[in-house]
Specification:
This protein is α/β, with parallel strands linked by helices. The longest helix has 17 residues. The chain starts with 8 loop residues before the first strand and ends in a 9-residue tail after the last helix. The protein has one domain: 3-Layer(aba) Sandwich (Rossmann fold). It has a 7-stranded parallel β-sheet, sandwiched between helices. Strand 5, helix 4 and strand 6 form a beta-alpha-beta unit. Helix content is about 45%, strand content about 15%.
Length: about 210
């Protein structure tokens, strides 16, 4: 399947370990519900935890009576791991990968905005990969939204070390948007969507080389 370049997709990264009832789980679920109600697509790793929260929330938003467009889709890009569960049941379009590198590239080809919720090593890898590709202009300048207090210390470290030592440029740091809750995250996503609609040729990724 070749993605439709007219669709706006929000990639959500985050921990597979957090469960329903956790504050962050519910924040991600609500964010994805807002995204789905707005008629935008969502893309996750397709697994449990915050990925499940995003796919579930998107379905709830799409089915909301006030939904703008109920044809939006929920993607799950699953990774084959001996201890990983099967894709969660809330995904519309599933694809499975053997290697993290190929999976990361597929995330980037689909992304018009990226939200990074709290997570572990895998989430840090996804954040760093997204950030570097934008830094070196291998993909469009899309927003990277850091959701939650976990990222405060990370941004403080970035300012005190890489930025202070001039290992990155100020504009690299400004690519990251720290938000405290799902409503603030959605504000950033909605602004990116507005730009997508008005400057689509500049904002879209190079879809024609990509097939899922």
């Amino acid at each position: 399947m070749k993605p439709d370049p007219e669709r706006f997709r929000v990639v959500i990264f985050g921990s597979a370990r957090l469960k329903p009832g956790d504050t962050i789980y519910e924040q991600v679920r609500r964010l994805a519900k807002l995204i789905g109600r707005e008629g935008l697509d969502v893309v996750t790793g397709g697994g449990p935890g915050l990925m499940e929260a995003a796919n579930l929330g998107h379905r709830e938003g799409r089915e909301d009576p006030h939904s703008v467009d109920d044809s939006s889709k929920s993607y799950g890009l699953n990774i084959k791991l001996p201890f990983e569960e099967a894709p969660n049941p809330h995904v519309d379009i599933k694809h499975e990968f053997d290697r993290f590198s190929e999976r990361l590239d597929h995330f980037m080809h689909l992304a018009n905005a990226v939200v990074v919720a709290p997570g572990g090593v895998g989430t840090l890898l996804e954040l760093a990969y997204t950030w570097q590709l934008i830094q070196v202009e291998h993909m469009s300048n899309i927003p990277i939204v850091l959701l939650g207090d976990m990222w405060k210390d990370f941004l403080r470290w970035v300012k005190d070390w890489p930025l202070e030592k001039q290992l990155i440029n100020p504009e690299d740091y400004e690519m990251l948007f720290l938000v405290h809750n799902c409503d603030e995250a959605f504000d950033v996503v909605r602004e990116a969507y507005r730009k997508f609609l008005t400057h689509q040729d500049e904002f879209c990724l190079n879809y024609h080389e990509y097939k899922l």
